[in-house]
Specification:
Blueprint: H1 2-8, H2 13-20, H3 26-30, H4 34-39, H5 43-49, H6 52-64, H7 78-88, H8 92-100, H9 102-109, H10 120-136, H11 138-145, H12 152-159, H13 164-179, H14 184-190, H15 193-198, H16 204-218, H17 225-228, H18 234-245, H19 251-286, H20 305-314, H21 339-346, H22 348-356, H23 371-385, H24 392-400, H25 402-412, H26 417-432, H27 436-443, H28 448-455, H29 466-478, H30 489-507, H31 515-518, H32 523-545, H33 552-560, H34 562-572
Helix pairs in contact: 6-7, 7-10, 10-13, 13-16, 16-19, 18-19, 19-20, 19-23, 23-26, 25-26, 26-29, 32-34
Length: 589
């Protein structure tokens, strides 16, 4: 019995090694339970790990493994993973040794000097430890990388952007600096990281990763203006549109990714930059001074104390739109000179041509709409949304007949609801915009009304766009700004005969509608069906009132059944043919 109990408490080989070890060795790392002992804070092991030799050995295995010394072992890749997990524990002693020994940090970041592509397992371990350092020692890490002698770190991170873990690490750097600023975003800005990434868009290996990184950066809840503003220039936007405008090889792949970034930039300006400008104007007009100062004349806008105070209130890093020298922007023209809007305005004709350029037929000999054209249509829709603050959009659309092209796509692809939704939203914006010439073109040469009435001439169930077409008609009836274009007798007759009955059917409550009023041509069939249901209801009532008894729950079910109640009301009105007036249709978008 004593022998059995003794075996239970027998020491492991790792404990035996730790009893006599004076430094962390390869033999200790060979043990299967070394990570578990480190995770549970084994005092002897922690003391050995918090030494320069131990950290150096772990970094060698993690970044350069498998090492020649372990190549002959059964599982040589194990050492890199175990070393990463030990370092990723974030032990205070290990981190202290790491940051107090410059050569260890040089060893860690020297991994980025390797040629691209980086070995994936080792790159994953490098980034995993980097995220831990951002969490446990962000200030120390920022102090190290911001040293002018180490400007190459940001450059090499950009070079290896085709490696997914590196892109995730950079996003984590930006998020961590937003929560508690230590200068890492400014470090990336000063290193011109984003302009260097734009040069990689022509590379199919890195294009998707770079574009996804730019999208994630722009779409952050509070996008860092210092970085995003580096993308906002004519050269970068033109580069993103280049595969589409010049019809390069792989244009579908490269162009779709770039168009996503352009669309995100448009929305970023509409939300962030426009919001900053509105706040700036409110602060500038609301700040009161004690009168003119000697250092700031009344017409000196650069040294105006009100402008300086408003800029400070908005934020020193906030991006504000700017116009030509000597011209002051208003809220209505705030986006007129934004680079992304300016480039899209200049290339409107090329974008329209790309929308009309159909991709090759697929295996079924059908012409698909294509991902590229769908992304272009999204940009066109977003660009129209900048119209209230960028009047040049309306002029460009008028010259290139953009509504006609989009409407042609709407009717050509009968079952593509993505296209239908975008065109429906585009038409709604045109109805509500301030450009009367654009509205006149839509209802004139584009023949919107004639095309809608022609589409309704076929059976409702034969086309996939009738739901969107119905909502377009709702928008046309409700929008007061376009009623002068809808005074023709054809439209009035069409709305009376086709649209109003359709709205009445769509707005009626299911189970409570007057079927004879809605479908007078089916009056006999409806009444015959109602008589059968009434007879069944009477038989059920007699059976429940018989001595055998009935079920009170059945009575409640019949009273609450809207179909039965509706049939009864139909029969009660059968003789006089006088039905209650239908409820007013509910105009719902």
């Amino acid at each position: 019995m004593m022998s059995f109990m003794t075996n239970l408490w027998r020491s492991s080989k790792l404990e035996t090694l730790l009893e006599t070890a004076t430094e962390f060795t390869q033999e200790i790392l060979d043990q299967d339970d070394v990570f578990e002992e480190a995770r549970f804070m084994n005092d002897k092991l922690i003391k050995l790990l918090a030494t320069k030799g131990a950290v150096k050995l772990l970094l060698e295995h993690m970044l350069d493994g498998p090492l020649p010394s372990s190549a002959s072992l059964p599982n040589p890749n194990r050492y890199a993973a175990v070393s990463c997990e030990i370092l990723n524990l974030g032990l205070a002693g290990v981190n202290e040794v790491l940051f107090s020994t410059p050569e260890l940090l040089e060893q860690y970041f020297a991994f980025l000097k390797k040629p691209s592509p980086l070995p994936m397992p080792n790159a994953l371990y490098f980034c995993k430890v980097g995220v831990m350092l951002l969490d446990r020692a962000k200030q120390q890490l920022a102090t190290y990388v911001r040293d002018p002698q180490r400007s190459w770190v940001a450059e090499r991170l950009g070079v290896h952007m085709s490696c997914g873990p590196v892109a995730e690490l950079l996003l984590t750097v930006v998020k961590a600096d937003q929560l508690e600023p230590v200068g890492l975003i400014r470090w990336l800005r000063d290193a011109a990281l984003l302009p260097s990434l734009v040069t990689q868009l022509d590379n199919p290996d890195s294009n998707s990763v770079v574009c996804q990184f730019l999208l994630d950066l722009i779409n952050m809840s509070s996008a860092p203006s210092l970085l995003v503003h580096q993308l906002d220039n004519d050269a970068t936007v033109t580069k993103l549109l280049e595969p589409v405008l010049q019809v390069k090889p792989l244009a579908t792949v490269l162009g779709a990714s770039g168009l996503d970034v352009v669309n995100a930039l448009l929305k970023w300006h509409t939300v962030n930059v426009l919001g900053n400008f509105q706040h700036y104007q409110e602060q500038r007009d609301g700040v009161k001074t004690n009168g003119p100062t000697d250092s700031a004349p009344a017409d000196d806008k650069e040294n105006d104390p009100r402008a300086a105070a408003a800029k400070a209130a908005v934020g020193a890093d906030a991006v504000l739109p700017s116009g030509p020298a000597g011209e002051e922007l208003t809220f209505e023209t705030a986006l007129s000179f934004v680079p992304v809007c300016r480039v899209l305005s200049r290339e409107t004709a090329a974008l329209v041509a790309a929308l009309q350029r159909a991709p090759e037929k697929d295996m079924r000999e059908l012409v698909p709409f294509g991902t590229l054209r769908l992304k272009l249509l999204q940009i066109v829709n977003s660009l129209l949304g900048t119209g209230p603050h960028n009047p040049a959009v309306y002029t460009d659309w008028l010259a290139n007949e953009v509504p006609r092209v989009c409407l042609d796509l709407f009717f050509a692809f009968e079952w593509n609801n993505f296209v239908h939704h975008l065109v429906e939203d585009m038409l709604r914006q045109i109805f509500e915009c301030s450009s009367e010439p654009l509205k006149a073109q839509l209802f004139g040469s584009t023949q919107l009304v004639q095309r809608i009435t022609k589409a309704f001439a076929v059976p409702l169930e034969s086309r996939g766009y009738f739901g969107h077409l119905s909502r377009i008609c709702q928008n046309m009836i409700r929008c007061s700004a376009i009623q002068k274009y809808l005074e023709g007798e054809d439209w009035k007759t069409f709305t009376l005969e086709r649209i109003q009955p359709l709205f009445k059917l769509e707005s009626a409550q299911l189970g409570a509608m007057d079927l004879v009023e809605l479908f007078p041509e089916l009056k006999e069939e409806i009444l015959a069906h109602a008589r059968v249901q009434q007879q069944q209801q009477q038989q059920q009532a007699r059976s429940r009132s018989s001595p055998e008894g009935g079920n009170d729950q059945d009575d409640e079910d019949d009273e609450e059944d809207p179909v039965v109640n509706n049939c009864t009301s139909v029969l009660e009105n059968e003789e006089g043919d006088e039905y209650p007036p239908p409820a007013e249709p509910q105009w719902v978008y």
